[in-house]
Amino acid sequence: MDLLSSVDTKAPPQSQPHLKGNMGFLSLFFSVVAYNAPLVVVVGAIPIMVSSGAGLGTPVSFIIAGAILGAFAVGFTRMSKIMPKPGGFYSMITAGLGREIGLGSGLVALLGYFCAYAGSVVFGGVVMGELVHGMLYGPNLPWYVWASIFWAASSILGYFKVELSAKVLTIFLLLEVVIVVAYDALVFVNGGAGHEGISVAPLSPMHWFDGSFPLGLLFALGMFAGFEVTVLFREEVRDPSRTIPRVTYAVIALGTVVYGLSALLFLNSIGLDKVVEAATEDPTGSMTHSLQAFGGKVLADAATVLVNTSTFAVILAAHNISARYSFNLSADGILPRKLSMVHPRHGSPHVSSMAISGAGLVVSLAVIFTGIGAIDFYTALLGITSFVILGVIFVTGVAVPVYLRRHGQQHSVWSRVVLPAVSLIGLGAGLILAGINFPLLVGGSFVLATILMALIVGLFVLGIALAVVYRRTKPATYAHIGRQ
To answer: pTM of this prediction?
Structure first.
């Protein structure tokens, strides 16, 4: 006899908590974009992609990554309308592939977003220290002094209603966009390094494979992570059925255009014949030189300052995402029930928020007392995040069409077969590349990569095992895995 038949699977073990909010299009849009840190991508990631990724083919890497995720978004947004659950990928995977795979994916996703938060707090301390000491000629203090400021600010904002965080993120993101647009416009108007006009030669197929096309695609896909926020914040969004699809497509479109265009203009700003060598010798210095050459010291200094605000935006966004994953897993009875408490005034997951802040503090203290290098630590956690989130997106890409087909959703062959297949091929290729290059993603150590990969796989298996156990011992909890 099926144990689930003996329990009421429509009523949860206790009343289900619900978050509250009134986010509109712009608030949700900037909350998602903040996680992707566009200024950090343009200033920090693009030169690295030119040197270690696709070389002159870097702009095309962003275009292809955007197309892959655009194809994925077709099913993703459709499912967000017909399955109004607040658990993000965790809920979608559960609905499509079952509670075992769903719980394993949910735990791994929480790990990925928490790593983004904890790693960025440490990185924030480093960049803030460089700003204060290097540019402002202030005191040369340890990274953790400055990191504590980022940690405290994100902890306070995460406690209150989500609109407060959204307003802060909106201000920071608007400043970032101004810097990026100003840089792009100056390079375009001045015609690049030779002042002879912008060359679109990097878009030609003859340059797609100048460097490592697979690595370029892997890097580019990683720059789009975070659009799950559109569904994860569902209960805190005004008119989610309309807002979520619009924001999802807008985020992917913005990333494709801004990243691709900025990469093309960066190549032109140094010269197509010199840029790969310059970026290889000094990725950071090459972008600094480009900023100063076309925007002067003012633009370069503004970019340096806003890299700090961009980093804080990532910290705050990752903190809020982690808190909501913790909230959803708690509401399902997987994590302690207290974590699913909702603040009576702010409608926020305030207990989960405090728990994430506390865990972040513990991790930072561990880095301090063990003497791990701050940048080494950040690199390792960023590698975990990149691999994990890409993996969860891939699994969601499998789950969505399975769910839609199972529930009789009749659509065109493009939306049912072609676009899901395109997204799965692209995401699958990216995931395989991430697995092969995992040591590179986490800092180059094979031993460390093996340990971290074991942690990721072990957590996924633990989720599956817990679901199997709950099916026999706690059928009511099992029935509601994935916010079902």
So the answer is: 0.88
